[in-house]
Amino acid sequence: NIAQHAQALRRIGVTHYKILADTNPNKAERVRTYVQNGIACIVRVHAERPSPDFVVNREVVRAYKQAGAWAIEPVNEPNLRDEWADGRFPNSWDEYGRQIARQWMRNAEAIIGEGAIPVTPALSPGGNINHRIATEKFLMGINELGGRDLLNHAVIGVHWRPLNNPIDTPPGGGNPPNTTLWREHEWFFQVYGQFLGHMPGFVETESGYSPNSGENRNFPHMTRQTWADWNKELYSRLNPSHPKATPGQVICQCYWIE
Prior knowledge:
Elements lengths: L1 H10 L4 E6 L6 H9 L3 E6 L12 H10 L3 E3 L19 H21 L3 E2 L12 H15 L2 H5 L3 E3 L26 H12 L5 E6 L16 H13 L13 E6 L3
Helix pairs in contact: 2-3, 4-5
């Protein structure tokens, strides 16, 4: 029962929910139910291997907007080869930036045209192209193709998933630098703030820890207990009165719950 689920989420303080949808509006009523119960919705319109050509259908955007969704996420983790059509993954970082910027701009125009807010492509931590390089090349492509104004009408999609790194691990340690961290938001804030000349809003459309992660051999594997404890701590930091409160430009954290 979706209404009961929404009410249960509100009772524990949840105010945002990320809906994973197909390329049709078959979850519009679910969105409507969450919104009616006080939960704002971001919709990821998910196409298989969407890059570099997928553009969301405006009728789909319209249906979700009318149901109450405020933001649409059309492109997912393009710094992973598996998110590209067969044989289309770019051979150069610059070409990656141009192709993803062009794809996102086409989607952003459709989404803004229907009155919703587009989410920029959230990147996989690490990835086949490191998320820092992918971000810089995406912004290069946006600049070359004249997309700054579209970016000013967007929110920045991010996947700050810290693997098995403790929450407060500082960025930049190790060789190569460890960038799969919760505090990687500091780098994103700096890069986007400098590019736009102001601080945009950020939405974590995949957030938090996963059980059994052990990618960083300097730290123990995640256990079910650390998975629960550290995710709850991230959740508690959304409270502005927390001594280590999540920065205010982070609009929401939508957990990737296995």
